[in-house]
Amino acid sequence: NLAVAEANLDTVTAHVGATEADVKAAEAAVAAAKSAADAAQSAATTAKANAETAQATADAAKTAATNAQKAADALGTRVAAAETKITQTSEQIKLAATKAEVATTLGGYYTSAQTDAAIKVRADAITSTVSSVKATADAAKKKVVHATSGTSGTAGILLLAEISVRSAYANTPIAVAVSQRGRQPSTAYIEFSSANSTDPGVSKFEHDGDSTFYLGKASSGVWNLYCPKTEAYDTATVTGCDVDEYLTSRIAIAWKTTQVAAVANLPSGYLTAKKLVSKEPADAIATKAELKIESDRITSNVSETSGLKTRVSTVEQTASGLSVSLGNTDKAAAAAKTAADAAKSTADAASAKAAAAAGDATAAKN
Q1: Which residue from 80, 124, 81 is spatially nearest to 102, judged by alpha carbons?
Q2: Per-residue b/e over 140-163, b at no fewer than 16 CB within 10 Å?
Q3: CB atoms within 10 A of CB 306
Q4: DSSP state, 191?
Q5: pLDDT tens, residue by residue, 312-321
């Protein structure tokens, strides 16, 4: 080793009879020993660093293991608490879990069976909504305010309603819609006069559709609404009665199911509803008028010729209004161009002849 080599070098150097070769050999041995010692020191330093790194890694792993154990312990506590809660309120928690499962299944990655189950829940909800809407629509279609009965087999005039005026100024319209066999649905419109009285007159009594309506005064402030049968087995059905909020506290309507034999049996001075000319929406009427004007279009053409041009004035009336257009059209334009071209050719030829003649004249003069 290095210490032995250095001691040997000292001995050889101090020995009187030592040769130069002995000294060099001792020095070489010292150098070799020193190199080996340096290499050993480097290896030891590296080994120490590796050991320290390994220790740090081990410490980190130990810390992670400790934290994982703590998390596992905490999870175990939470699960135990959740299970306890489920046991205590099983129905309530089950319902909440079902709702959460549906929401999670639709947004996550689950099995096909789970996905199908979630979709079925949503499909059932949609079906329920549609069924509810359909039920509402069916109820609207089957709406019946009043249906007459007990007069089948006997011809006559049905008493539909008894209208009693209970307060002054009951002058907003009443609309009673009626459906009968073999007739277009009809509506009777009744409007009492504006009066500070509970016994007003009738200012308007009109109807649309095919049915006929009568209004007879039964007593002070009480009027009966009648509708003739279309046949002995006809039954009139009231499908609607529109009375605004203002009028609800001022009149009372009692539905009836009796009839009278004929017009002669109606109250004296009864009124007959006037049929409205048209009950179509205003936009439908406007459309028809527009189409009528279009079919009867009026067009006026005026032509004025001046020289080679013709000026055309067109006036056209349509549904959208009156339009006027002015235009010029060429007349015999091709012939005019041909004549102009011919005149130019003639002029060119004449010019050429004149130039030739001038040349001849100059030559003759010389």
Answers
A1: 124
A2: eeeeeebebeebeeeebbbbbbbb
A3: 9
A4: E
A5: 555 565 556 6
Helix (H) or strand (E) holding 5: helix 2-14
At 101 the pLDDT is 44
Strand order of the sheet with strand 237-243? 146-147, 237-243, 174-179, 186-192, 202-208, 274-275
Q: Tell me which residues of the chain have a pLDDT lower than 70.
A: 1-3, 5-6, 8-18, 22-23, 72-142, 278-337, 339-340, 343-344, 346-347, 350-351, 353-366
Burial class (CB within 10 angstroms; exposed 0-12, middle 13-18, buried 19+) of 165: buried
pTM for the whole structure: 0.42
The span from the first CA to the last CA of the chain, in angstroms, equals 143
Separation CA 323–CA 315 (nearest Å): 6
Distance CA 358, CA 350 (A): 12
Q: Which two structure tokens, joined as six digits, stand for 320?
A: 């959208």
Burial of 180 (0-12, 13-18, 19+ CB in 10 A): buried
Where are any strands of DSSP class E within the chain? 146-147, 157-165, 174-179, 186-192, 202-208, 214-219, 222-228, 237-243, 251-255, 259-260, 271-272, 274-275, 298-306, 309-318, 321-330
Q: Where are the domains of the chain?
A: 2-67, 93-139, 146-279
Contact partners, residue 123, CB within 8 Å, separation at least 6? none
d(CA 284, CA 267): 39
